[in-house]
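During the no-cost extension, the postdoctoral fellow (Dr. R.K.) reprocessed legacy sequence entries with the updated structure-token encoder. One reprocessed record is reproduced below for audit purposes.
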Amino acid sequence: MSFYSKIFVLLCLCSQLLHSQSKEIQFLSGTDSEHTKEWDFWMSGGRKAGSWNKIQVPSQWEQQGFGSYNYGRDYVTYGKNFKFNDEVGLYKHKFSVPNSWKGKTINIVFEGSMTDTEVKINGQLAGAIHQGAFYEFKYDISDKIIFGKENVLEVKVSKMSADKSVNNAERLADYWVLGGIFRPVYLEASSKENISFTAIDAKANGTFRSNVHLNGIQNVNNLKVELFDVKNNLVGESQVQIQKGDTLKLIQFSINNTKLWTAETPHLYKAKFTLNKNKKTIFQSEEKFGFRTIEIKKGDGIYINGTKIKMKGINRHVWWPETGRAVNKNIDLMDVQLIKEMNMNAVRCAHYPPNKSFLKICDSLGLYVLDELAGWQKKYSTEVGKKLVKEMVTRDANHPSIIFWSNGNEGGHNFDLDSEYAKYDLSNRPVIHAHHKPGNAFNGIDCNHYEDYYSTKNILEGENIYMPTEFLHAQDDGGGGTSLADYWELHWNSKKGAGGFLWAFADEGLVRTDFNNQIDVNAINAPDGVVGPHREKEGSFYAIREIYSPVKIDLKTLPNDFNGIISVENRYHFTNLNEVKFEWKLVKFKTQFSSESSFDVIKTGKVESPSIKPIEKGNINLNLPSNWKENEGLILTATDSFGKEIYTWTWKLKSNDEISQQFSTSLIKEFPVSVVENDSLFILKSDEKEFSIGKKDGLLKSVILDKKGKKISFKDGPVFVNGTMELSSIKSFFEDDNMEIEARYKNGNKIIWKLNHNGILELNYEYSLSGDYQFAGVSFDYPENYVINAKWLGKGPYHVWKNRLQGQTYNVWQNLKNSTRTGQLPWIYPEFKGYFDDVSWLQLDTAEGKLTVGTKEEKMFVRLFDFYGIYGAEGYPKLPSGNISFLDAIPPLGTVLAFNINNETSNLGPESEPNHLNGAFKRNLYFYFGLPDLGDENKQFTMPKENILTD
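Re-encoded structure tokens follow.
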């Protein structure tokens, strides 16, 4: 045998030896929701009850077609006599184990089973019935395994627990109640002398401590710990002697030049623990961890590594529509990436510990985590709770991402359990209470839920740190990003503001296998997310992204003397802005007649990143070319040190008046204009087009497009959305060879219609208001069913509210017609209907033809059709009259928890107050009506083949 062959064999033997020295894993189920295994299954009630079938494991049995569905709040919906389906599922599976496991300790591990779980191996009970759905538990089954033959695993899972406190804590809750073995099941084999678990405490000063919990120590006499960096370089080691019967050893030492873990710099290390007998390795285990120090300075703030931080957080259920709480690492990765895409730095695991892969991804990508013991609004008993705290903490203690333990939610706090966490967590993380009543601060942190802006302000002036673990409830389209800017500024600028956690990340829509696989959000109970069930992004997603951007730019419009210098604030906690890359683009937007991309890039440039320390302010100098004003748009993109886009800002460089002139000059044909009258109408004519104006009210009554009488049904406007329309006078006249009609109203409002030679119909209107208003402007009517799509130059592509203008950028956008109601089927985003911001022009493609409308003044909102932000007995906020509106002001949106009959949102902050209007408003609109592209006149109209622009 050659030298290299000998080396190869030696390496293989070493690899096998190392494998045998560590825990060996054999999955009995699949590894996740995407990779399952088939077991035998029997269900006690509901669908497929009473006979043996097959089921995929892990899974929720409802999603496999068994049993019945319950939502946790059904007991509220249906009254005190309601009873949950107390279903029982019996699982059976046969397995073999390798002969090499003889003499080893063999455990069977369940990562999660809903709820009471009884386990038998070869007919023998593995141990006491486990109670509690969301926790990893295991049994030593070494003496029950048969080698050389098949073994039989039998598992009895009861959906409802025999322990009332478990049901109170987990099942009587505001979420779907599901059953079954929903996380993996596996065997783990290790040497008789082994490490059961470790608890690491690694501080920012380089101190490493670990409690090493030992099993079966007889002959092992040495424990060695080695630390490795991300490149697998050994950076430190230490060892201690151990004696027969030892069950716990503390090992402690320090290393130099540590790279610290934060959500911005998620540096990880690896600790290798080795049990030796006279230099012979008996057992090894590994743990990833991070060096970081958590401090709660009472009356001050939350500190990581000596720096005060503020949580930009969100609540997350473990969820996927097809599989319920049985998920996989791809879903976990997607969710962490989406949360970080919103420029958030924190997540609360509501209302139970997540699966392990989620925490590993939070460690590696960087999110601060609040890990929570279940207890929705009621608590576990002390007896059960102590066991579950131990299971949660021993599983999760070494994740550097976990900053807090939460001992239950909204009254689900068993105070006897507060001291239990530190028994298993050597780092002694802070324990908090996520509560919903004032005066329940714990460990110096008040987490009170759903305070309004002004009560938040009062709490921040009190003695405690304030970190709401739920706020701005995002049911339907409310909450989430609406009002968030005001709340965030309050926390950012307050000494005791620690940020908080929005409710919630995703709509908990469940694919109902009993209703033809429709997605069900249980009416108003579960559509609480800023993304949909399959992570469809709502408008709040983008608003949050801008509001929470660590590169804060407040410049809304470019001043006339703009010189390329932009003020910027660094809202990172640990990152200098010289680590951020900036790039600008000068662009020209495509006209409404284009079917290509939304803009042409004329020139690009990279910016020298300024050195601005965390929480400090400075400037970015774009160094634009001298002819930059010749373009139509300026785009600036910030990218972080990991290559991820932080945010992109856009500014328009041309006024709407200039844009309207460009539009007019594109119509080169001119026609004579005239007017005819009858008893009720003025009829303006140009070429084949006719526009009828009512003599009694001055409103547009009809639009005829050709000699055949082809109509477009845009009419009955402009109706002023506030006040009355009592006409005082109306007349027609020529002005500069254009035909005009002027209508004046008794309240001082005025409109002028003007028909130009190029076929453009102009509307000039004036109105005055003094007071508080939800909206202001004018409306028209058009049949919604005729509309095919909308295309516009303005902010988009999502609709906005007065208190959620953030997140939408100036561009050419196009949305296909849809009837999406935010948070409900069919989750087609962006929603077609709504208020749209800063529109320069809008084009509707309809079954009757094209309708184009533009404005010569700035800052016009367009309202498209009927929609509501929050749905209840009545939708709210109330809408203007008509169904297409051109507005100078739009309403704010509240939250479901702030709902009242008057849509009172003022307590959510300055942005959420009604519009305080005082003065005269003037606007010029121009309309162009065109026939559809018919092609063959014998064919029905078809939509033009245009690209649908997306964000």
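Residues 294-447+510-517 form a domain with the TIM Barrel fold (CATH 3.20.20.80). Confidence is low (pLDDT under 50) at residues 3-19, 933-951. The remaining legacy entries will be reprocessed before the final report is submitted.
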